[in-house]
Amino acid sequence: MGDPQNITIEGVSPGMEFGEASYGPVTREDIVAYARASGDDNPIHQDEEYARRTGAPTVFAMGMLPAGYLAHAVSDWFGGPQHLRRFKVRFTTRVWPGDEVVCTGRVESVEGNIVRVTMQARRRGDGPEALNLPSEETALVGEAEVELPE
Amino acid sequence: MVSAEQPQGEISFQLPVERDKVQDFALAIGEDNSVLLEPEAAITLGFPDVLAPPTFTVTQIFAVPREERETRLGANLDYGRVLHGEQEFIYKRLPFAGEVLQGRMRIAKDFTKQGQRGGEMRFVTYETTFTDAEGEEVLTAYYTLIETAKDVG
C-alpha cells in the first residue's frame, strides 16, 4: 500500500481492507477529558451515582469518543483528515470503561476521485459484570467518503 | 453568542475555532496526526494553521447548550429516554484554527416509527451548517437523537 501520506486514487480498489486500529482501553479519565474538550457534560458519562439512577451499572463513554477514534483511523488509512468528504456513524451499543475500541474499514467503491468506505468500531472487553456482555461486539457502524489525489 | 434576530425555527451562532481547543480535542480522541496538532506541519501542507479534527464541531454545544437548543427549536424531547443514534458530517473542507465559523441550526427531520420491542421511537435530526468568513460552506453536521418508547427500559 506504500506510505499512506502519499496515497493516491490509483492505489485504492474495492475490497481493500484496513485495520485493526486499536484504541484504549478507555478509562474514566479519557471520558472526563473528552467531556471537557467536547462540551458534552451529561453526568451519565461521569457521575457513577447518576448513571446508576438511570439504570446503567456504571458510567459509559459518549458515542462521539469512539466516533473520534474511528474518524482518526479512517483519516490515517487515507493520508490524513483533510481528505474526508463525509463521515457517518450509527451507534449500536455502549462502550464501557476498560473496553478497547477496534476499528476496521473496507473500500466499497471508487468513483472518480471519491473512495467510499464502510467501517466498524467494535468494543472488546469484559464490560460491567451485571450486563454479562459478549467480549466483543459492534459498537459503531460507519460510512465515509474520501477524496484522493490522482 | 447567539444573535437576537433570526428566522423562527433556526439558531444562528458563532463557533470560534481556537488552536488550544482544537489541540485539546485532538488529544482527547487520541489523535497523533501532526496536521491537527502542530501549526508548522499544517502550514507545510498549505493550511493557515492546525486543522480541526473531523468531529470537532460537536463543540457547538458550548455555543448553544442543550436547554437553549430545546427551548428555541422546540423538539420537546424527554432526555431521560434519549439516545444519540447517529452522527454525520459532510465536508467541503475541515475548519482551521483561527477562523470563526458561522453556524445555523435547525430541525431537519422529526418522525416516529415502531420500535422492535414495541412502542414508538422518535427520531429527531438537528442539522447545522457551518460557513466561513466569506460565507462559503465549510461543513454540515447532522445530529440524530432517538427518544425511546416510554414503556421500554
Structure, described:
- The complex is a heterodimer of chains A (150) and B (153).
- Chain A has helices spanning 28-38, 48-53, 64-77; strands at residues 17-23, 84-91, 100-111, 114-124, 136-147.
- Chain A is an alpha+beta fold and 150 residues long.
- Chain A has a single domain (4-27, 60-147), classed as Roll (Thiol Ester Dehydrase, Chain A), CATH 3.10.129.
- In chain A, strands 1-3-4-5-2 form a 5-stranded antiparallel beta sheet, covered by helices on one side.
- The relative contact order of chain A is 0.23.
- The mean pLDDT of chain A is 94.
- With 153 residues, chain B is of the alpha+beta class.
- Chain B has a domain at 11-17 and 56-147: Roll (Thiol Ester Dehydrase, Chain A), CATH 3.10.129.
- Helices cover 21% and strands 35% of the residues of chain B.
- Chain B is built from 5 helices and 5 strands, in the order βαααααββββ.
- A 5-stranded antiparallel beta sheet of chain B has the order 1-3-4-5-2, covered by helices on one side.
- In chain B, strand 4 and strand 5 form a beta hairpin.
- The radius of gyration of chain B is 17 Å and the shape is elongated.
- Chains A and B meet through helix 1, helix 3 and strand 2 of A and helix 1, helix 4 and strand 2 of B.
